[in-house]
Design goal:
With 258 residues, this protein is α/β, with parallel strands linked by helices. The protein has twelve helices and ten strands. The chain folds into two domains: 193 residues, 2-enoyl-CoA Hydratase, Chain A, domain 1, CATH 3.90.226; 48 residues, Orthogonal Bundle (Lyase 2-enoyl-coa Hydratase, Chain  A, domain 2). The two termini are 27 Å apart. The protein binds acetoacetyl-coenzyme A.
């Protein structure tokens, strides 16, 4: 399925790639783009043959933030009526793993979008930032919360309060980027990692993602209880039997997702 501003591709078995496609606006996230990202992630997550999703843009921009031209004249009630929190929650709540492949700018809502993903692969010349204060607002797609959780209060404050951009290497060193790669290899590396994940037992992958995400904001005891229940549940899966049998029999496992 294709759409002019967000495209869906199938670059490998088990892998869907969702591409933001507004190059003329540095992939700025207007409402159409946001709705389509949420819609496509939901559809791909519902598709049994898809095991991992890559979210990307182009070489100039992952996304340069919310569309400033679209929102510049809006008032509070119109902002409320956009319902963006629901869209962000849908994107962040995708049950299947999502890898952000970031080249170029990931600013404002673009940085926030990358932070809703589970893994961030960035090209060496990618630039991140939450520059919203420079235009009289603050991050509105989770930046004040997710950046702080990802890199700690003092680094997050340093960038949110100045609006300064930071390099992919700084992002990597702060723990915001999972892997830093040469610019030309960003998409390929993200797809290769997605293929690697797609070959693993999907129930285990889904539960691992859920345990990490739900546990990160819970008390340790709650997170540990959740993890324990998840691993216990996995012992009812065929893939657990197959994975362990294959190890013992020294052969490659055949996972079915059951
Ligand atoms: N919204 C709307 N249009 C945007 C845009 C944005 N966020 N970012 C870039 N564009 C448009 C530009 O207006 C320009 O359009 P025209 O050709 O019609 O003039 C086109 O994309 C190309 O942009 P530039 O010429 O500026 O390209 P550049 O390579 O010189 O600079 C940039 C790229 C550094 C990303 C610069 O465009 C920029 O600073 N963009 C704004 C970044 C920003 O402030 N993002 C935060 C937005 S607020 C937000 O995201 C709130 C939230 O959390 C929900």
């Amino acid at each position: 399925m294709t759409h002019p501003v967000v495209l869906v591709e199938r670059p490998a078995e088990g892998v869907a790639l969702v591409r933001i496609n507004r190059p003329e606006a540095r992939n700025a996230l207007n409402m159409e783009v946001r709705k389509l990202i949420a819609q496509h992630l939901t559809e791909q997550a519902d598709e049994a043959t898809v095991r991992c999703i890559v979210l990307t843009g182009n070489d100039k921009a992952f996304a340069a933030g919310a569309d400033i031209k679209e929102m510049s004249g809006l008032g509070s009630i119109e902002m409320l009526q956009r319902g963006t929190l629901k869209l962000w929650s849908t994107i962040a709540g995708c049950p299947k793993p999502v890898i952000a492949a970031v080249s170029g700018f990931a600013l404002g809502g673009g940085c926030e979008l990358a932070m809703t993903c589970d893994i961030i692969i960035a090209g060496e010349s990618a630039r991140f930032g939450q520059p919203e204060v420079k235009i009289g607002i603050i991050p509105g797609g989770g930046g004040t919360q997710r950046l702080t959780r990802a890199v700690g209060k003092f680094k997050a404050m340093r960038y949110i309060l100045t609006g300064d951009l930071f390099s992919a290497r700084e992002a990597y060193e702060m723990g915001l980027v999972s892997e830093l790669v040469p610019d030309a290899e960003v998409e390929k590396r993200a797809i290769d990692m997605a293929k690697q994940i797609a070959e693993l037992p999907p129930l285990a992958i889904e539960m691992a993602k859920e345990a990490v995400l739900r546990g990160v904001d819970a008390a340790l005891d709650t997170g540990l209880a959740l993890e324990t229940k998840a691993i216990q549940l996995l012992f009812s899966s065929q893939d657990q039997k197959e994975g362990m049998a294959a190890f013992i029999e020294k052969r490659k496992p055949k996972f079915t997702g059951k």
